[in-house]
Amino acid sequence: MENIKRRKFIKKTAAASAFSATTGLYPGIAFSNWKASDSLSDEIKWSKTPCRFCGVGCGLLVATSNGRAVAVKGDPESSVNKGLCCVKGYHTVLALYGKDRLTKAQVRKNGQMVEVPIEEALDLVASKMQETVKEHGKNAVAMYGSGQWTIPDGYVASKFMKGAIGTNNLEANARLCMASAVTGFLTSFGSDEPMGCYEDIDHADAFVLWGNNMAEMHPVLYSRILDQRLKKKHIKIIDLTTRTTRTSYADDKTILFKPQTDLAIANAICYEIIKNGWINDQFIKDHCSFKTGKTNIGYGLEEKFKFNDQAKPSSFAEFKKLLNDYTPEKVEKLSGVPAEDIRYLASIYGDPKTKVMSLWCMGFNQHTRGTWINNLIYNIHLLTGKIATPGNSPFSLTGQPSACGTVREVGTLTHKLPHGVVMNEKDRQFAAKIWGVPVENIPDKPSNHTVEMFRSMDRGEIRFMWIQVTNPMVTMPKLNRYRKACEKEGRFIVVSDIYPTPTTAVADVILPSAMWIEREGMFGNSERRTQHFNQLVPPPGDAISDAWQIIEVARRMGFEKLFPWKEENHIEEIWKEYRKHHAGAKHEMAPYEELKKRPGIQWPFVNGKETKWRFNTKYDPATKGYDPKGKESFDFYGKKDHRAWIWFRPYEPPPEIPDKEYPFWLNTGRVVEHWHSGSMTRRIPILHKAMPHAYVELHPADAKEQGIYNGDPVKLTSRRGTLTLPASIDQRGRPVRGQVFVPFFDENYLINELTLDAYCPISKQPDYKKCAVKVEKG
Amino acid sequence: MKKEITEYRMMFIGLCIVLMVASIFIFAKSLSQEQSGLSNEFLTKDVSETETVFPDIVQEKEVFALAGKAKLLELQTTYSSRERTLSNFYKRRAYPGAPPRIPHEVQQDMAGGNNCLTCHDNGGYVAKFSAYTPVTPHPGMENCRQCHVPETTETLFQETDWKTFDPPEIGRSALHGSPPPIPHSLQLRGNCLACHGGAAAVREIRSSHPERINCRQCHVKKNDLHQFTVKRS
Fold first, then answer.
1. Residue A218 lies in a domain
2. Chain B closest CA to A747's CA: distance in Å?
3. How many angstroms separate the CA atoms of A381 and A388, rounded?
4. So what's the ipTM on this one?
5. Which residues contact B171 (CB under 8 A, 6 or more apart)?
6. Residue A546 and residue A428 share a domain
7. Residues 87-146, chain A, touching B (beta carbon < 8 A)
8. Residue A23 maps to which CATH number?
9. Is B69 a member of any domain?
10. CATH code at A372?
11. What's the pLDDT tens digit per position in A528-554?
12. Is A83 within 8 Å of chain B by CB?
């Protein structure tokens, strides 16, 4: 980065003279509405950073002047977005400057939150944590972080909870958004994260979007697809969805299906592919093995629900036989998708000349059979051999800037370690050695996943929870129960955040955090790309980074030897230590110096080279027979048998289906303007003004039947809660008949008070897309 | 044979010249008629002042005369209260270079889809808004509302302390009358005339010579001038 000297910023007086010629021409013109800053210096510096918001991980250039961020543009050198952003990205920096920013620590005293020096608050957190461990045991304390943690934040949290304190009560909100993708990868390939990358978009001929409103949720990537279609006329975009969206309006074909029936549709596609002989025999013979798992696996609604899947060896013949229940005609009855459309989809996947990219995000992952549906999409790509080559790519998109980097790679989940899982002794030994702790410190059993963690809090097993960079009091399903749990006597909640939220409202201690470019850090995006950013502006008031908050508390608890780093270079030191966990061709992370230089680097980063396509012998140095100049072959080294696993997974119904009393499906999600619980984007004027509040979207015919007009109050009731909010008819999207949609960004309309906390028994990720509600004119 | 072709060609060129002269004559006459029909002080004042903008080279005067008339025509057609001004231009942006918000009502997605480009690809007069449509500076991008959002309320969720820098100064010519340099980044703004040319251009930065479409022949990016031009290392 270079400092840019430029002519002095125009001061107001100078501006007046500069415009004198103009004002002479056009009397009455003044820039009265322009809120310029007089205090800015005459130097502007542009620095690279990944965007703060979603998992696409766009490269931004942020302009700073006199300690403030003042402008943004897309980084043309970033291969992710090539200079383009979305409306959130262009206005990210405004998220730093809401007037109600938390700048001082607060502690609850006699029921009231009182500002205190941050040292005092950190002392209290440390002593309370120690006290809780002493009185109730190690598993009475928990930490709940997020995919918005930087990689160093997550790493410090993991070392602190698992290595130092010795509990696996460490979770992150990515459990609510990515867990099924992880278990999908692990069960099919034995190695997490996509084999392909965004460059697949430039090579693919057809794009099948599975329950994914990309135009709003991953707009920069959707634009990249649209751009390809504009250049190459043959490209097809197919939107498989339960709701007509902005994405559907730009696609070539929209296929509407009934909730949960994606499982059957995927199986029917496989059935057709096999029936028509479109399978890639050689690929299956050389690189795949067949498995079956348990069925009727439940929904996690019971307290302390436990489930362990079991892989049974199967065969192609058995797989083929099991698929007989999924003929297009049978699936048409279940899913509402015409058999003809299922055959059309199968023909796209089956045509050896068509390179296909499948994309999905929350539609698949927030699903009580999330792991299964992830497996099923891989089945389609594996049967046809359309995987891990440029343009043939099953691609799991992510929602948070570092869901991959921090939660999946660092492993800030109860069962994970930075490398491997807590259940594996070798993995525990490996982590303990790098951390410098006795291996016994790391418990060998996972404790609580997110939903169970909040249930434990309700039951009183967990007494202390430290929540960082996330807003569970907006985002937890069945919210009423878990809010009450946090408010119970004898629970101590610490919340690190940047603005007041419904979560800080239940806190006993609030720690003001330095966000994003107010500190140094790294994010990891959906395509295995690690992106470093420097501290560009100072944090406000007493705010400090999440990592440094944990380090301060750890030192107060006597773990200073494990966290010896100096404030000036702790990020570099942490990265160097963290990299050791991933050494080796399968997961090698780029060195710190390289990360600082480039807009982003994809791992595995081996001998100075990024790996764009994993498991492919032409591109992936970890494969057996790796040869960049040789012929393309495959080595699915994640599994011990070096094969990708094709799982037979049946259709099973969701736990709650609309009935007479609650006749509508409730689906929840996002809008392009707001990101997650809206605590940042709602403070950005242009975004709030464009989308000021949540709404309930109805199908026009359903609305008409009940005499509901646009903007009318509508009362939604589920078995768990009631919410009245304005109707939205044929505005942003159109649900199918018998379904309503509510975005979850608005803390004034907490839709999660209605949602169900059922989850995928394998991934433990809740399903926010399906539950039953009653709809009444309010 | 050859001779015949040459003769035909000569005749054709001659006819063209006659037609051109005639059309210029008719065109100019219609202009002067229209002008005489307008006794607006604004117009006359403006024209007299803009004359000084043109190069003072006597032998070039004829060349620029027509351009001057083109400008006159432009001013006439855009003289309306809905003309784009720099003040509004910046009011719609969070900082210089930010994507502007949509300043008018738009159809919701489900009421017919995203039709922004119907108007913003080609421009033209829209009676509904009594204004000329600004043309997109980045044609070929279809997901418009990825970056541009309408305003549906004027209230805020929370007050903001956002500040940014002043917009670039205008009139930065090195010499009196020399072409001013480009004070901003061209990223997503490659089509100069979207903002600088034609009836929908922003008044204060409208080019006096939109017919010369090779803008960067004379206007160069000046890297030390303004932060928007800066390339990182």
1. yes
2. 11
3. 9
4. 0.88
5. A18, A21, A22, B180
6. yes
7. 87, 90-91, 94, 97-101
8. 2.20.25.90
9. yes
10. 3.40.228.10
11. 999 999 999 999 999 999 999 999 999
12. yes
